[in-house]
Amino acid sequence: MSKGRILQKWSRRERANRRKKGVKEVVKKRNRLIALVLLFSLIFSLAAFAEEGHFVKVTAYDVNIRSGPDTETTVIGTANFGDSFEVISTMNDWYQVRVGKDAFGWIHASLVKAGTRFAAPNPTIEVVEANDVQVNVRGGASTSYEIVTTIRPGTRYPLLQRSGDWIQIRLPDERTGWVASWLVTTSENKAKSTAKSEQMQATVIADELNVRQEPALGATVLGTLQQNELVAVQEERKDGWTEIEYDGRIGYVASEYIRLPGHSILQAESRPVEAGLAQVIVKEQVNLRTGPGTNFPVLVSGRAGSQFAVTAKSGAWLQVQIDSEKKAWVASWLTEVQGSLDGVPEVHGSLDSGLRGKTVVLDAGHGGFDVGAVGRQSGVFEKDLNLALARTLYNKLLTTGARVVMTRDDDSFVSLDDRVQIAEREQADLFVSLHYNTHADANISGSMTFYYSENGADHQLARQAQQELVASLGLPDLGARFGDYYVLRENRVTSILVETAFLTNQQDEWSAKEAGHQELAAEGLFRAIVSNLQEQRE
Ligand SMILES: [Zn+2]
């Protein structure tokens, strides 16, 4: 019992460590960033020669690059759709990327796609622009689908795919939708690094804004800016002032009256809270999301000090009222809660409704002296890949409200019998053992999933896991199969053993070591586990 609880603490500890690190980071000078960005584009003009390395490609708009793997760390820059970055390392759901010769930043995995090496540093993407004043964007590729939103000329949207006369586009809030091809113009759009210099400009959002000589209210006024005027930002300071260039000299404006392109997501305004209701005060600039987890899109951002009434809770996430109609979710650890949350209703999203009260045991195969398979090309140990995958999957499952127990959360040896004991002692609903495969024939590539009991829950879970894993990873489908493994045979809990890819196959091994691989594999297994547990409940 105690062991499971210790293992569960892993994520919290990790999060605390990351937070500590983030706080230590110093605010980076904006103008230094411009230099980095220029350097970055230079490096990428040479990148065609540097074929080695892993890259991620940005798949969202105005993506923050941060000083650490945590949304609480400083934003050191932004990236745009289509930008690609060399991956230096990964931590949980974050990629550390190169933004300059010796400069690095962190991007959240949900905002990029990883896996392949991109031949072109800035891949050309096709974009879509409305021809008409108002073009409907629909949920599917025909007029029978509901209208999701409308688009107007002047804004171009990334083209995702075509289906007949219809085109799927990506919307700025990361949703997708379909437009009729006869109502839009498509063109090639080079993701341009030149746009970066424009990003250092902020827009004045107050009617009039004083520029002061010093970052203080009483300081001499150098001049006044009008609404919608653009200012060149030197540094966004932590004290609520932004250093700008004004008439060839340095001046200061109140940060809350300007908007940086990187912060182009709307700010939620503080809402007066009725007496007696629980409320949160945002400790630092935070993302307010459409759902209770970092996997949900950002709806608006909340400035440090903003206050919102709490309307619901889901695990460690709080739903808050951001205007008279809209609600959004914020991570409770980024806020200060005032009043009692006891009366606040606990809600379960559609995703977690089947998972609360469920227990999943994740079993990272091998460990310690038992390294498992060894990558033929790189010498990578299977035990390390298994653990990385287990941790990624662990984080995903935690957001659903399920209880997740790891049979090991570090590089230690755990006997097969102990692994089974943990599953039974924790009265797990599912046991998922994670492995990488080997084969004498180096040509064999793909994913496979093993079960022990032919009829029943094991087989069903194996089928689901195999299907989702293949759909997500895209490796050959070697099927869900019977396997006489100790952790399956001796286990009374519904159990499967996943062989994610072959470390004896050059391509599989290469893929397994890619930064985005764990994310994709975990995503597939996550979907399978969620639907399996939801079915169990029905
Ligand atoms: Zn193994």
UniProtKB/TrEMBL annotation:
<dbReference type="InterPro" id="IPR050695">
    <property type="entry name" value="N-acetylmuramoyl_amidase_3"/>
</dbReference>
<dbReference type="Pfam" id="PF08239">
    <property type="entry name" value="SH3_3"/>
</dbReference>
<dbReference type="GO" id="GO:0030288">
    <property type="term" value="C:outer membrane-bounded periplasmic space"/>
</dbReference>
<dbReference type="InterPro" id="IPR002508">
    <property type="entry name" value="MurNAc-LAA_cat"/>
</dbReference>
<dbReference type="InterPro" id="IPR036028">
    <property type="entry name" value="SH3-like_dom_sf"/>
</dbReference>
<feature type="domain" description="SH3b">
    <location>
        <begin position="275"/>
        <end position="338"/>
    </location>
</feature>
<dbReference type="GO" id="GO:0071555">
    <property type="term" value="P:cell wall organization"/>
</dbReference>
<dbReference type="GO" id="GO:0009253">
    <property type="term" value="P:peptidoglycan catabolic process"/>
</dbReference>
<protein>
    <recommendedName>
        <fullName>SH3b domain-containing protein</fullName>
    </recommendedName>
</protein>
<feature type="domain" description="SH3b">
    <location>
        <begin position="51"/>
        <end position="116"/>
    </location>
</feature>
<keyword id="KW-0961">Cell wall biogenesis/degradation</keyword>
<feature type="domain" description="SH3b">
    <location>
        <begin position="199"/>
        <end position="262"/>
    </location>
</feature>
<dbReference type="GO" id="GO:0008745">
    <property type="term" value="F:N-acetylmuramoyl-L-alanine amidase activity"/>
</dbReference>
<dbReference type="InterPro" id="IPR017293">
    <property type="entry name" value="N-acetylmuramoyl-L-ala_amidase"/>
</dbReference>
<feature type="domain" description="SH3b">
    <location>
        <begin position="123"/>
        <end position="187"/>
    </location>
</feature>
<dbReference type="Pfam" id="PF01520">
    <property type="entry name" value="Amidase_3"/>
</dbReference>
<keyword id="KW-0378">Hydrolase</keyword>
<dbReference type="InterPro" id="IPR003646">
    <property type="entry name" value="SH3-like_bac-type"/>
</dbReference>
